Amino acid sequence: MPPALTLTQRLEAHLRNGHPWVFRDALHLPQGLRDGDVADLHDAAGRFVARGTVEPDSPLTFRAWTTREDEAVNEDLLLRRLHRARSLRDDLVPPDVTGFRLCHGENDHIPGLQCDLYDGVASLRTDGRLGLAWEERFVRAVQEVANPRAVVVRNPHAEGGPRLVAGHLDGEVVISEGDRLFTVDVLHGQKTGFFLDQRDNRDRIARLALGRRVLNCFAYTGGFSVAAALHGAEHVTTVDIAAPAVETAQRNFTLNDIPLAPHAFRAADAFDVLAEQAAHPGRYDLIILDPPSFAPNKKTLPRARKAYGKLNELALKALPPGGWLATASCSSHIREIDLLDILAEAAHAARRELTIASVSGAGADHPRRLGFPEGAYLNFILAWVA
Ligand code: SAH
Q1: Is 39 a member of any domain?
Q2: How many separate domains does the chain show?
Q3: Is the Cβ atom of 223 under 6 angstroms away from ligand 1?
Q4: 185 domain residue, yes or no
């Protein structure tokens, strides 16, 4: 029998409804447990609630893997779950998409493991001390399920940054997304190399792009820019504060046979660029805002709301009537309703009327687990300006 932890708060229903996390202040923890050890979670009356893994010194101390008492938490379970994650992608990811998320951590019922595939290269982001303790198991499972030609692992707790742990990485890794191609720097890029979660939203931008003048702020390597330029945008300005990202965006234009000349690439602060445009509106009729998470935790929320508000207000001031705003937030602390509120306030401040055309999230390869609102981190709103 695994060792038992006891809940000191009444979280049974929360766990049974799918939420996999228990924080330190809601637990009594026996001595002697190590990171990644399997333990049972009991309620105050000693009844089984869940089985999972522990990280004794982390605020996030217990992650549930199962609420079935007859299910062992081990490498077999990991493998079954990863096969299941794979079959979901087989159903939902089109065959001409060669960059997609194979495993979305807790949302795929595999706590601590995010794994993206980039043209056969597996890029893992393991989470917390669990990720360190289970790294070899995670890598073996990915190798068995996906047979990758190379495996890269990153964990924010590990020293030394992303590591190539299997196979070879020679030459550029290029993925296709239907008619779009992207180069992905799996070792040095942000996230696991690319923002795969915006794929369906890139399609939304592509559908709006014909004949438009597009300003893509926080562009990273130009995912939205390529989508717009390939689908008939007259002009695309790509803005990111990181010069190497902007250079890679140019490489992505070239990969897609898009001439660079009609377009602009700026390594600049998006707030400054938007302030310029707000002072001289009308140059762009589609503005994309996809900033980094301004709210990594609840404490930063008030400041984050202000920053999102400012950005959206500036963008709305810059747009002419009939223009489009695509605005995103990638923090689970900013829910859909919060982003809509922020937008309403920004519209008021900018004296614009807005019509919401669509609200969406990440693509289906980033599924959400029931009962786990943290899984719904990405919100993407398309709004029409009057
Ligand atoms: N839209 C991108 C992902 C954006 S990630 C995509 O679809 O791939 C956020 C990006 O914002 C990062 O590339 C980061 O370098 C950039 N960034 C952060 N602060 C910025 C600022 N003040 N101005 C412009 N870019 C910024």
Answers
A1: yes
A2: 3
A3: yes
A4: no
Catalytic annotation on 330?
Answer: yes
290 C-alpha to ligand 1 centroid (Å): 7
**Residue of 196, 202, 240 to mutate, ligand 1, most atoms within 8 A of C-beta:** 240
Phi-psi region of 285 (alpha: psi -120 to 50; beta: other; left: phi over 0): alpha
Q: Which atom of ligand 1 is nearest to the CA of 198?
A: 7
- Helices (H) then strands (E): counts for the chain: 10, 20
Residue 289's domain comprises 195-385
In a structure prediction context, what are the per-residue pLDDT tens digits for the chain, which is 386 residues long? 899 999 999 999 999 999 999 999 999 999 999 999 999 999 999 999 999 999 999 999 999 999 999 999 999 999 999 999 999 999 999 999 999 999 999 999 999 999 999 999 999 999 999 999 999 999 999 999 999 999 999 998 888 899 999 999 989 999 999 999 999 999 999 999 999 999 999 999 999 999 999 999 999 999 999 999 999 999 999 999 999 999 999 999 999 999 999 999 999 999 999 999 999 999 999 999 999 998 888 888 999 999 999 999 999 999 999 999 999 999 989 999 999 999 999 999 999 999 999 999 999 999 999 999 999 999 999 999 99
- Give per-residue burial for 144-178: e unless 16+ CB within 10 Å, then b: ebbebebbbbbbeeeeeebeeeeeeeeeebebebe
| 42 in the same domain as 138 | no
What is the spatial distance between Cα 270 and Cα 268, in angstroms, rounded to a whole number? 6
Phi first, then psi, for residue 371 (nearest 5°) are 80, 10
> Do 235 and 377 lie in a common domain?
yes
- Is the C-beta atom of 380 inside 6 A of ligand 1? no
SS3 at position 254? helix
Any idea what the CATH number is for the domain that residue 201 is in? 3.40.50.150
Q: With H, G, I as helix, E, B as strand and everything else as coil, classify residue 233.
A: coil
Cβ 271 under 6 angstroms from ligand 1: yes
One domain for residues 40 and 107: no
Q: How far apart are CA 149 and CA 155, in angstroms?
A: 20
Statement to judge: residues 137 and 206 lie in one domain:
no
Q: What is the CATH number of the domain that holds 166?
A: 3.30.750.80
Identify whether 33 is part of a domain.
Answer: yes
